[in-house]
Amino acid sequence: MSGEADAFVRQALAPERRPPIITTGVVGFARTRLFNSPTNALLTIAGALLIWFTIVPALKFLLFNAVWEGGDRNACLAGNAGHPVGACWPFIQAKFTQFVYGFYPEPERWRVNLTFLLAGLLLLPLLIPKAPAKTINATLLFVAFPVVAFFLLYGGGLNGFAVAWSADALSNLVGSIGNAGARLTDLGDATQYPLLSDMFRLLGETIVMVSTGALYLLFPLAWLSDYLQNSGQPVWADFAASAVIVSLGLFILNGAFRGGWHALAWSLATFLAIGIVIAVMGLDRKGLPVVDTRLWGGLLVTLVVSITGIVASMPIGILLALGRRSNIPLIRLFSVTFIEFWRGVPLITVLFFATYMLPLFLPGNFTVDGLVRVLIGIALFAGAYNAEVIRGGLQAIPRGQSEAALALGLSRWKTTGLIVLPQALRHVIPGLVNSFIAMFKDTSLVSIVALFDLLGQLRASFADPAWATPSTLFTGFAFTGMIYFAFCFAMSRYSLFVERRLNIHRRS
Predict the structure, then answer these.
(1) Rounded-to-integer distance, Cα 451 and Cα 116, Å
(2) Position 163 pLDDT exceeds 70
């Protein structure tokens, strides 16, 4: 037995093996990711050459050969520098306030800074998932902040409150309807065909009669508005009347003495906060000095246009997406027509129409600010695109989700708002953020309608002969490009964070 056992004992040392291939560290990364095949090796070499011939010259221009100090163009000329001249950063330093504020009056620029600060303070907690009071925070950001920002940036005060606004709006609406009826009556009198003449006259007289009856119904509201306006403090009198009417209405609609106390308390607290804002900003005393929107420019206009377009286009897109899937033919036809119309025209055409053509369709005594017209056009344009993105998410939700919700007793509105729509929005986060990024970059098109956004303000600064150098043009575009990249990259990375957080249940 010992002989057989000795036959399995090695008498000589085994030959040495080659060490295992390193798969960690820099060498391992290069072996497994960069040079693991001939194709990847060629792509790695081509990428390295591309970086060498693009990134290195860019760094030399922006950093190593750049001019950092100087008071005029002479500091950025090659003859005075003694070396190849790169970016002319003194030009950016001299024009920085112009890039941010445009032609906004310098003594009033604190209002822009305060608006930016309030926006950051309200937006930051909303972006942090674990921050408390999300509902209150979102209400302040999307409801209260736009009103405060308007009076901060534009200025002006209040001549009344909800009673006066409602009376004026309803009176103008009824008056416009009555004028349309009168025109139809005149058209019937001028028509030579008896059938059309009688039809137009009957329709016009009916519309005039209805509008006249509506004016009689609005008489108490108009009387109350006139009475409040003739008081010593029209703003505060109207504010108090509005608070009483709205609070009592909510109190009664929510069950009155049985369950309306909560709604009454919230209403009074809201009006108290609004009153504090009115008093602090002096809106009852004509407010801050008015700064016309034609003086706005730079990053201020870019952020106002892009943020307003993004926020306003979301509800428009949701309503259009739901309307296109509606079972009511009229709503579905309107949604389809609206979406296809706005998607079928370029944004430049929309801006031109909103700026130059829209005033021709408005009554002679009714004017809309140029920036507001652009904001409306961009919101409608972006809403049509967002509608199709959201509709794709709605179609991705199985029908069993809504059927199960309906079987549990939920109404169709609750089924859509609580079950279907949240899942659909979660599925289309990449598409929505892609639309937001495209909209943020497309704000540069407003320069063609005489609005100086960041890029338009940059082009205007090139006309200054004090900074006319060969490198000024490239420096300005590099600076604005970095700003656009910073905002777009931040939106992209945050959308990835939200997508991972909302889809955590799908991780394998």
Answers:
(1) 20
(2) yes
Q: What is the CA radius of gyration of the chain?
A: 32
CB under 8 Å to 208, separation ≥6 — which residues? 178, 181, 182, 185
Please indicate, yes or no, whether residues 334 and 189 belong to a single structural domain of this protein: no
Give 363-406 as a DSSP string.
-TT----HHHHHHHHHHHHHHHHHHHHHHHHHHTS-HHHHHHHH
Q: Is residue 141 part of a domain?
A: no
Asked which of 242, 259, 285 is the last residue of a domain, the reply is 285
The 3-state DSSP class for residue 37 equals coil
Examine the fold and report which residue of 264, 285, 306 is the final residue of a domain before the chain moves on. 285
- Residue 110's identity, in one-letter code, is W
For the chain, the straight-line distance linking the first and the last C-alpha, in angstroms and rounded, comes to 56
Residues 108 and 211 in one domain: no
Q: Is 317 left (phi over 0), alpha (psi -120 to 50) or beta?
A: alpha
Poorest-confidence range of 76-80, 118-122, 256-260, 280-284? Answer: 76-80
| CA gap 147, 161 in Å, rounded | 13
Gap between the Cα atoms of 215 and 91, Å rounded = 61
Q: Is residue 147 part of a domain?
A: no
321: which residues sit within 8 A by CB, 6+ positions away?
A: 335, 386, 387, 388, 390, 391, 394
Band the pLDDT of 116: cuts 50, 70, 90. Answer: very high
Residue range(s) defining the domain that contains residue 67: 25-81
Structural domain total, the chain: 3
pLDDT of 191 higher than 80: no
- Residue 481 lies inside a defined structural domain of this protein: yes
Give dist(CA 72, CA 217) in Å, integer.
68
- Whole-angstrom CA distances from 360 to 351, 355, 363, 364 are 15, 10, 8, 9
Judged by average pLDDT, the poorest of 42-56, 252-266, 454-468 is 252-266
Residue written as tokens 């929107």?
293
Q: Looking at residue 190, what is its pLDDT?
A: 67
Distance CA 135, CA 133 (A): 6
Task: Kindly state whether residues 74 and 103 are assigned to the same domain.
Answer: no
| Whether residues 36 and 115 fall in one domain | no
Q: Residue 343: CB partners within 8 Å, gap ≥ 6?
A: 384, 385, 388
Q: How many C-beta neighbours within 10 Å does residue 211 have?
A: 19
Q: Which residues pair with 67 in a beta bridge?
A: 88
Chain-centre distance for alpha carbon 425: 17
- The 3-state DSSP class for residue 125 equals helix
Among 53, 56, 51, 67, which Cα is nearest to 475's?
Answer: 67
Contact 375, 308 (CB under 8 A): yes
By the 8 A CB rule, do 114 and 152 touch? yes
Q: Is residue 139 predicted with pLDDT exceeding 60?
A: yes
List the structure tokens of 95. Answer: 């024009």
Cα separation, 227 vs 238, whole angstroms: 9
Instruction: Report the candidate in 292, 305, 293 with the shortest Cα–Cα distance to residue 351.
Output: 305
